[in-house]
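Let's do one together. I've listed all components of the complex below, 225 residues spread over two lines.
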Amino acid sequence: GENVEQHPSTLSVQEGDSAVIKCTYSDSASNYFPWYKQELGKGPQLIIDIRSNVGEKKDQRIAVTLNKTAKHFSLHITETQPEDSAVYFCAASQGTGNQFYFGTGTSLTVIP
Amino acid sequence: NAGVTQTPKFQVLKTGQSMTLQCAQDMNHNSMYWYRQDPGMGLRLIYYSASEGTTDKGEVPNGYNVSRLNKREFSLRLESAAPSQTSVYFCASRKTLSTDTQYFGPGTRLTVL
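Okay, and this is what the predicted structure of the assembly comes out as:
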């Protein structure tokens, strides 16, 4: 099955700086890559996603890039704010399939 | 519109006890999922239900059973709890198999002593 690796496991940045989280996947059939944000005591919430026919997608301060050849995708958060502090998960799936394979998470801390 | 709700929020069991985790969604979604979340291991799929009346195993189904009671409700049962089942359990739903976004509930933190 699919194997998703996520790095780093922890990340601390100063407020206003950028944060980058990277994931790699193993199954070339995967074609949908969502990113979730999980705040303490809550369930994961989708923040952005990308499909394999797109190389980059941006939503305000958040962007995701996908390199299908290298089988990796990244989350970029610019102008970080304290409220961005959370655990972020990447995932991969085959879109219409049932299984989402999740990375192990990145704990992001934004220092005011 | 409450989204996905789960009960209970916390539970402590002794080894060998049984319990059922409840999940309900009010978004008229067809597909529902149960995941477990363990430190350093991300989210792993236990069981899912593509539609009312169907259930299928995910990545880690051993020790669990599920029931899709109706379109809204999807329960997860531990027949004989083991310490290895100590985890945080999340229920999720999405509209159809071809629709990608999953919506998660707030989770149930289960400890098995």
